[in-house]
Design brief:
By secondary structure, this protein is mainly α. It has 6 helices and no strands. The protein is elongated.
Length: 148
Amino acid sequence: MQNQILMQVGHLVIIALGALGAMAGNPFVRKVFLRLEMANRGRGAGASSDDGKYGLLLGSRETFRGGRAIGVLERLAVYLCLVFGFPEGVAMVLAIKGLGRYPELRNGNDSRIGELFIIGTFLSILWSVLWVGVVIGVGHLLECFFVN
């Protein structure tokens, strides 16, 4: 009985820590964007000289207001949907995000804005899935220690 309680508490702690990890994906997403921006500059494409140090990444702040907060919520929602066995929820999260950003994507004159949106969405999902894998793996290890 005591082992079952410890295992349940352990699972809850792992799920909570995984949620924090999933929400903390902003540095990962920004690092990938910076690498992409530097690769574009190396090919002579992408940012112009007045884009500043980070080109499109920081230039998109005015286009995608609230992007960081939306990214955190997106990663948390995807993580929770997958951890609790509701993968259909991921489609709902993506639909809501796409519909919410549709006017900005449609009215943009720069095709890179759409690319930034898609890449950022995929990176957020990838980061969330990574944390789901960590939680499942640690959960299995926890069961090995507390079963029998």
